[in-house]
Amino acid sequence: MKNRIIKLLWKFYKLSISPYLPSQCRYYPTCSEYSYQAFCEFGIIKGMYMSLVRVIKCRPSSKVIFDPVKIQEKN
Questions:
Q1: Euclidean distance between CA atoms 54 and 48, whole angstroms
Q2: pLDDT digits over 18-54, tens only?
Q3: Residue 29 domain boundaries
Q4: Phi-psi category of 42—alpha, beta or left, where left has phi over 0 and alpha has psi -120 to 50?
Q5: How big is the CA angle at 9 (ends 48 and 24), to the nearest 5 degrees?
Q6: 28 pairs with which residues across the strands?
Q7: Per the domain annotation, does 75 fall within a domain?
């Protein structure tokens, strides 16, 4: 249920808000894609924390950086 809500909110953002913002994210995947992956992989609390840390690090003047979400190991 939570993942479904997250996916709907992310799609809303990508279709309704993102097209009107300038594209200046220097990271790959983009900050919004990273946030989506973090929420899906780690849940709302840790995903939100990871997203916040990522957005704080993101600066238009920095180099392009490959910084994927670290996938949890399944035991």
A1: 10
A2: 888 877 777 888 888 898 889 888 888 898 899 899 8
A3: 2-66
A4: alpha
A5: 70
A6: 66
A7: no
